[in-house]
Design brief:
Layout lengths: L2 E10 L5 E10 L5 H11 L5 E7 L2 E4 L9 E11 L5 E11 L3 H12 L6 E7 L2 E5 L1
Parallel strand pairs: 2-8, 4-6
Antiparallel strand pairs: 1-2, 1-3, 5-6, 5-7
Length: 133
């Protein structure tokens, strides 16, 4: 299960001043909120304030994080027919790392060609910086 965490840390800006900034991360391989918080604290040597932890809607991470490329959340839709013959849409969110929306779309189209009977519904850029494992 994936968790999303937001931390406040002090970073040095271009002028050499320490400023408090908020950063957003995905934490992998956790079963509890406390585990996600502990991993974030460990990542920053307890020199941060973990002020937000929630279960993520992300079901899968499509590719690895690449330096200088942001993450995008892609919504994919699976249309299923229930016992009454009515069509229902099941939406899932996956995370993809790409340099822009065009590349993210291309990666997702290749991902869906792997036998998934789903369609791409939308892609949005996120503020997620990295995955903490």
């Amino acid at each position: 299960m994936y968790y999303e965490v937001k931390v406040k840390i002090e970073k040095e800006n271009a002028k050499g001043e320490l400023k408090q900034v908020t950063e957003h991360y995905i934490v992998d391989n956790c079963e509890l909120f406390a585990e996600a918080e502990a991993k974030a604290l460990e990542e920053f040597n307890n020199e941060c304030d973990v002020f937000f932890v929630c279960r993520s809607k992300i079901k899968e991470i499509v590719n690895q994080k690449d330096i200088d490329k942001p993450f995008f959340k892609a919504t994919i839709v699976d249309v299923v027919t229930d016992d009454n013959g009515e069509e229902k849409e099941n939406k899932e969110v996956v995370l993809v790392c790409a340099k822009n929306v065009k590349e993210a779309t291309s990666i997702m189209e290749e991902f869906l060609k792997q036998g998934y009977d789903m369609r791409l519904d939308g892609i949005v850029k996120t503020k997620i910086l990295d995955i903490l494992t």
